[in-house]
Amino acid sequence: MSTDLYVEVLRFYAGQMALLDSLDLEGYADTFTEDGVTHHVHRGQKLEGRGALLEHARAALPRYREVVVRHWNDNYRIEQGDDGALTVAYGSLVTLTDKEGQVRFESTYAVTDVLVRVDGRLRTRSRTLLRDRPAAA
Amino acid sequence: MSTDLYVEVLRFYAGQMALLDSLDLEGYADTFTEDGVTHHVHRGQKLEGRGALLEHARAALPRYREVVVRHWNDNYRIEQGDDGALTVAYGSLVTLTDKEGQVRFESTYAVTDVLVRVDGRLRTRSRTLLRDRPAAA
Amino acid sequence: MSTDLYVEVLRFYAGQMALLDSLDLEGYADTFTEDGVTHHVHRGQKLEGRGALLEHARAALPRYREVVVRHWNDNYRIEQGDDGALTVAYGSLVTLTDKEGQVRFESTYAVTDVLVRVDGRLRTRSRTLLRDRPAAA
After folding, report:
1. Which of A23, B1, C2, C42 has the most CB atoms less than 10 A away?
2. Is residue B86 within 8 Å of residue B78, measured between CB atoms?
3. Who contacts C48 (Cβ-Cβ below 8 Å, separation ≥6)?
4. Contact A38, A130 (CB under 8 A)
5. pLDDT for C52-97, tens place per residue?
6. How far is residue B24's CA from residue A23's CA, in Å, rounded to a whole number?
């Protein structure tokens, strides 16, 4: 994989996470393909299509009036398949900052995405989120 | 924007944050332009010029004898204006580690900088820090 | 240093940290040179050679059945010596997530590595970890 493509993927995530964290839900949904799937494995929930994603995100909005959410991702490993699709694996740490500036943390997550290029732009075709769980759990 | 420029900006921040976190205040101030402005919006404070920045930072030093501060930035979005200046937006998480190794967190922040090139080197011309604040606050 | 090399180093760490955090200890040890040294300065411990590293890591495994560990590194500063070896300095934040999804933090660290190229692949020849300690401590 070229340096250009690796950095393009870093920039894609910077933009996508900023849309999510600023609660620009339409903008966030638009970074997915029309049929994009978000799979929250730990709660057995699969959102199929941009519409389902958006509906789910909107329903969660009231919860995000009391805290600012930020996603801190790291360690992006990227592989390109024969069809050009990119499989991207990374860790995600989620902070919740309240009105006093207190920072709390959600669990950490392992995320695996598939990105494809549509009309020249990268988009997420699937996102699989696995909440971190110790071996002994 | 080219991959080269995006990565140059990532490297600029890695260096600048390392100077700040190691309390090399002169080195940190030197990464700003002579007239560089730091604007802490949440406390209505505007430090105009490298001298004011340095004076403010030196006054805060005693506070940093008891903890090690580290800045963890993420999701750098960069846009280049017609004049070549770069507007860089990112999130910042600040840790404070005490002598027992306990980690505390300051609030999270949204930061927007303007970078310009002076004698071939990138420097910060302005930094605007906005403490994260929930919609309901 | 070229953009290509800087990004190659970012990708090296993404891969190495993912091996460590997924407890693939053989895979992790294999990212070191055969004689690679890990120096935990804060506890005066020097592990010399891949075998010693692996033995030490295996002994720590039981501790990691109860929590998921993740390393969040930032601010990579890289310098290349005349012999081609790369000195890489960065900050490291370590999270421990338990079975309830509660996130705890180890101390923050300053890490300095030397990377060399062996058979075309980057490997760690030495890693020096310094636990953050305030000036007044």
Report:
1. A23
2. yes
3. C35, C37
4. no
5. 999 999 999 998 999 999 999 999 999 999 999 999 999 999 999 9
6. 37
Euclidean distance between CA atoms B6 and C3, whole angstroms: 9
Dihedrals phi, psi of A123, to nearest 5 degrees: -140, 155
Which of A23, A103, A104 to mutate to test binding with chain B, by most B CBs within 10 Å of its CB? Answer: A103
> Mean pLDDT throughout C11-20?
98
Per-residue pLDDT of A51-84, as tens digits, reads: 999 999 999 999 899 999 999 999 999 999 999 9
Contact at 8 Å (CB) between B31 and B123?
A: yes
Cβ contacts from B onto C, under 8 A? 73
Smallest Cα distance from C109 to chain B, Å = 10
CATH code of A3-131, in short, is 3.10.450.50
- The domain spans of chain A are 3-131
For B58, phi then psi, to 5°, come to -65, -35
Radius of gyration of chain C (CA): 15
| Residues B126 and B110 sit within 8 Å (Cβ to Cβ) | no
What φ, ψ does residue A105 adopt, rounded to 5°?
-125, 135
For A24, the token pair is: 């620009």
3-state secondary structure chain B: CCHHHHHHHHHHHHHHHHHHHCCCHHHHHCCEEEEEEEEEHHHCEEEECHHHHHHHHHHHHHHHHCCEEEEEEEEEEEEECCCCCEEEEEEEEEEEECCCCCEEECCCEEEEEEEEEECCEEEEEEEEEEECCCCCC
What was the pLDDT predicted at B136? 85
For CA atoms C20, C26, C31, C37, the dihedral sign is positive
Backbone φ and ψ of A120, nearest 5°? 85, -10
Mutate to test the interface with C, among A5, A75, A93 (most CBs of C within 10 A): A75
- Report helix angle C3-21 to B3-21, nearest 10: 60
User: Which residues, listed in sequence order, are joined to residue C115 by a DSSP beta bridge?
Assistant: C86, C124
